[in-house]
Amino acid sequence: MAALFFLFFLFASQSSAVPNARARDFSNAKVEWKALENAPFIQIADYKEIQLTIHCAKIDLTAPGLTIQMLPQKSASQEACYVEDFCKKNGSLLAFNTTPFYVMDGGRKKRHATAGLCINQGQVNSRPLGSYCALAFYGFEDGAKFSSRKAKIFATQTDKEIKDAYYAAGGFWQILKDKKIIQFKELRDSRTAVGLDKDGQTLYVIAVEGESPSKSAGLSYMECAEFFLALGCENAMEFDGGSSTQFCVNGKSALGYKNYVKVPALLAFALEH
Fold this sequence. Notes:
The protein is mainly beta and about 270 residues long. It has one domain (about 1-20, about 30-270). The protein has helices at about 1-15, 85-90, 220-230; strands at about 20, 35, 40-50, 50-60, 65-70, 95, 100-105, 110-115, 120, 125, 135-140, 150-155, 165-170, 175, 180, 185-190, 190-195, 200-210, 235-240, 245-250, 250-255, 265-270. A hairpin with a 2-residue loop joins strand 2 (about 35) and strand 3 (about 40-50).
């Protein structure tokens, strides 16, 4: 039964996708970064073209005081929320949705379950799926040197190296590997995706609007990969997109429309108390 609900989720998450009219070219794209006043190690930007809005973030993972917050917070958690509400409650500087999920109708109360790997503070809260990718963080344990922190993208969530991650979030598929774009079907939609520089110490996040195509038509996976190349990334991957896409800065959604989807999986960055 769970597999049935997951298949329904996959169909629903792509149902608003539209074919490319013409692939976008980001080879000359320029992003104007602006550091957050309360946390200069996080830079944000809005990149806009005709019928396209991309919200961007650039995070120095080695910055002293940077901490990670994550859902799910415990094994088999069915908690779901709006990313914006999570930020306001936990004082997050930046947050976005991550792992795909499915919803089981429990009558008056719907139950959410993540579909893929989630590791929070070294604890595996959701089992891995070998056919999907993951973003893993290392060096965030208590006592570890800030300079040792880094992240890595894995094409499969069952890679043996992931077991040593302190945080990890599963997604869909890797779209950029060693600066080479991986081919996918060309469908545009809202997207949540991340990329890494060569050293894995700078994390790039994008949230592409696509729920109102007349204003912003979204991007295909390959167009996302092109954009990450323009940002200077060597590797990149997709998280859950479509109507699940959420991106919040300092407790406020950056999207140009209201999001009505609660998610059980997210990543957030905050200042150490």
